[in-house]
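Exam prep: given the inputs below (a chain plus pyridoxal-5'-phosphate), describe the expected output before reading on.
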Amino acid sequence: MSAPGSSEPGWLKNGLDHVWLPYAQMKTAAPPVPVASSQGVRLTLSDGRVLIDGVASWWTACHGYNHPHIAEAVRAQLARMPHVMMGGLAHEQAYRLASRLAALLPGDLERVFFTESGSVSVEVAMKMAVQFWMNRGVPGRTKILSFRGGYHGDTFATMAVCDPQEGMHAKFAGVLAPQIIADLPRADAELTALRALVEAHAHELAAILVEPRVQGAGGMVFHGDDVLRHLRQLADDYGLLLIFDEIFTGFGRTGALFACTDAGVTPDIVTLSKALTGGTSPLAATVARRHVFEAFWSDDPDRALMHGPTFMGHALACAAANASLDLFETEPRMAQVARIAARLEEGLAPCRALAGVRDVRVMGAIGVVELEALPQGLQKTLQAAFLEKGVWIRPFRNIVYLTPAFVIGDGELDQLTGAVVDVLDKALRGA
Ligand SMILES: *Cc1c(COP(=O)(O)O)cnc(C)c1O
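Solution:
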């Protein structure tokens, strides 16, 4: 194993003076790990080392990297037409994808608005909800109710509906539009409190926004489907729209193709991104039910949804997404997720016995070890120790998690869970 930095490629050394890194205090952060190529669940580094990927590139690469079916679809589309604008022109990939998403989603979730990132798809959902009321001639319904621990993006409108602490509400106070943030109603007392809150604010609320089943970037916190049924009931009782942000949970991650499918709750609007293209290209979608769309259907141009990103419905990205959906049909993805869930459960179980571990939990292809605390120093130690073990695992805050590609083999998955157990055991004992 080569010493860190010994074979650092020139592009990294030069580029580090010019690239601004995500979520990083660049002065103190560990330098990024240079990757030369990817294949399946493996990353080959510039110095020749190979890592098993436990993160699937922020939960996107659900079929593993470089799946030949997706690669071929993108190649074919590139040869024919990389992209044409969606304003006034139409291309097959986006239109086919919209029809397929409508067919896969429950109920009459059937009208698809494409964007290029998750944050923007949530912004569009918020804009749809607010304009829904304007178009119906109901004034003042401009706010969104969202939940503590939630994460919906990094743009200004979405920051305002994230967890108040993690979403940097204090830092940007006075800049963010104030929204209503509540506790997720996991117990009866919280449900009663939420009902009272909704009652008090109903006149100014456009919608309720929630990540169904798993609050992802907010800490990989799970909740039961009964919570979603309560939210549906509450939204119906007060005439609010219900928005599910399935950017993380969509496309099999929790064990169902969509969280809303299994929960038996149909939201009025759903947002999708992360695994939509199998990790190939940026693409997102905001999907609305018929009654939402009908509030915009009019002879009045002023009632139109005024949004339209330059790269909306990007043809290469839509080709990748269509190919990704093919794979959910032709390969046993959901069976793989069930197998991963059982093996994560077994493989991470020894962490329960470690002092300093608060909780170990698994849902679908998400395995989480929550620590009492993860000081900054320890975070760097863990990162280095995982690299030593030949795995790519990136802890955040007090969370060490695995969200592997669904095609991962049993042996590879055992290497990931084994690394988590070993590394945490050593680190938490201070060895
Ligand atoms: C990642 C994520 C987003 C933001 O998506 P970006 O593509 O990073 O803008 C929004 N909501 C959820 C639930 C996410 O996991």
